[in-house]
Amino acid sequence: MRPIPIAALFFLVATFQALADAAHTHKPKAGVYTGHAADLGEPGDPKARNIRTIEIVMTDQMRFQPAQITITRGQTVKLVVKNAGETKHEFILGTPDELIKHAAAMEKFPEMEHDDPNALSVEPGKTGTLYWKFTKSGVWEIGYACLLPGHFTAGMKGKLAVY
User: Does 113 fall in a domain?
Assistant: First the structure.
């Protein structure tokens, strides 16, 4: 039996680390959410008072409708996301840096599935629901996106403004 070359071993370790990083989920620490999209806020409580509902449509033209969402800081939002296309799409909240890095990881590992409170995978003709409480103010040129391979680079992203 031949030993594994050092370069191959480093490649395997890096690959497994990338998979582990991409597949992890975050749990609140002492009541503070530290997971994906924490710079936007935290998972919303479906039982909260005064929830605002926003409907979003995803299309096979690699667009979201609306292309921009404006929200009041502190507001809990129910995002009702409909896939009007014939291919699977995703809706993922995050900062531009998070989304760009995650899109690159999805290109390398297209079979990656999401199980995070800031993400939905929606089959054609179906609708998904996501609750989010926007606790941070800011304007993000990319605040939500579809990160399936090719979709993000084709322009499937939206602007998010929280005041």
Answer: yes
Q: Does any domain span residue 155? A: yes
Give the integer Cα–Cα distance in Å for 159 and 100: 14
Cα 16 to Cα 8, 20, 21, 107, distances in angstroms: 12, 6, 9, 16
Q: Do the domain assignments include residue 23?
A: no
CATH number at residue 149: 2.60.40.420
Nearest in space to 160 (alpha carbons), one of 80, 93, 88: 93
- Domain of 102, in residue numbers: 38-162
In angstroms, rounded to a whole number, what is the distance separating the alpha carbons of residues 136 and 152?
Answer: 24
Question: What is the count of structural domains for the chain?
Answer: 1
Residue 25 belongs to a domain = no
Residues of the chain where predicted confidence (pLDDT) is lower than 70: 1-30
Q: How far is CA 43 from the centre of its chain?
A: 12
DSSP assignment letter at 106: H
The Cα–Cα gap between 27 and 5 comes to: 38
Q: What is the pLDDT of residue 113?
A: 81
Specify whether the CB–CB gap between 65 and 97 falls below 8 A: no
- Which residues contact residue 32 at a Cβ distance below 8 angstroms, ignoring those fewer than 6 apart? none
